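User: Can you help me understand a structure? I only have the sequence.
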Amino acid sequence: MIVAVLTVDQRSSRTSADRVPEAIAALAGLPVLVPFERTAGDEFQGVFDAPAALPRAVEVLLREDAWNIGIGVGDVELPVPDEARAGRGPAYLHARSAVTAAKNSPWHLRVDGDSPDARSLETTLWLWAAVLARRTRRGWEVADLVDEGLSYEEAGRRLGITQSAVSQRAQAAGIVEGRRARELATRLSTTLLTARADA
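Assistant: Let's start by predicting it. Here is the structure, written out as tokens:
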């Protein structure tokens, strides 16, 4: 069974507050195979088999700009355990390698796996991170409302600004580019996580 193991390590944890509980709570609504849990100190881990959920989790983490993010894609030993820390298999080894490498990598993010598509996903996530990094608080306000399904006009009414102002914020925040990047990341995640079924 091919899965994505997401191993996340808090940056500067010795000089900042513990953010792990807050991050796990922010990720709680996503469909996961094995729920996120703290695995050691300032590190937590979860397991995905739903391709669309993986990019969503990465977006939540990139938004905070506080994490080393390692994604390992590969097989896991069956049966899959109820706790992430009890899992074994290549996906876990890839995730460990990835989170270690993330500490000195662009956007503190790495993807590791046996498929060449792992590198493609990593590249896509790096480019997406560059778009997200330029968003201000106001840009995220618009992005969140658009993600809820609101039009620019409806978002403007909610925020008390004009539709033109919403459009300007959306452009500055790279909302269109971010949406395309998420779509591509989801497609690549699907390719990686369904590879065995297609073989």
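Now, to help you interpret it: The radius of gyration is 17 Å. The first helix runs from residue 20 to 26. Let me know which part you'd like to focus on.
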